[in-house]
Design goal:
Blueprint (H helix, E strand, L loop, with lengths): L8 E3 L4 H9 L5 E2 L6 H10 L4 H14 L7 E11 L2 E3 L5 H11 L3 E12 L2 E8 L2 E4 L4 H11 L20 E5 L2 H4 L4 H10 L6
Parallel strand pairs: 1-2, 1-3
Antiparallel strand pairs: 3-4, 3-5, 5-6, 5-7, 7-8
Amino acid sequence: MLQAPAPRLILASASASRRTLLAAAGLRFDVTPAAIDETAVKTEVRAHGGTAAHAALALAAQKAAAIADPDALVIGCDQILVCNNTWFDKPPTLPAARAQLLALRGRPHDLVTAAVCRRHGDVVWRHVAVPRLVMRDFSESFLESYLAAEGEAVLTSVGAYRLEGCGMHLFDTIDGEHSAILGLPLLALLKFLRHSGILVG
């Protein structure tokens, strides 16, 4: 058995990718998505001169804190895409996704990916990974074909792409842990869980 019977793990996220990553690693966990005002958090961080890493950590911490189960280890996560000092959110519509991909086309961007664990009301671990991806200078006809193939699935990602799907066709180079690109720095999390005795060392 890789995982100790206690504490329970709770993922405070509705992300299918994060659920899949944890399940593929053999972890037992519950899912309780946390609802917070993400725009307000980002606005406050930026007003105080904070970086995207500060904002992602603040969002992950608030999501973990929103789950009222002090005996469980709650995992909060967040991800912010940064290109030319602009922060990108999940596109709300397909036209917005198209505009976002055009803004990223031919440029490098960072996926600032944060995870925070809370237990007994305290933050016991935090981590930020920053994979860098370089989007290729694709054609307009490719973009239309890509959006037609992916459909509304592009609206589930901060980058308007899914590397587990057709999104791989968008890139020239990718530098960083694959799981962090998908929204969860899994290697660092597993290391913390081993050091905490929650996983077999």
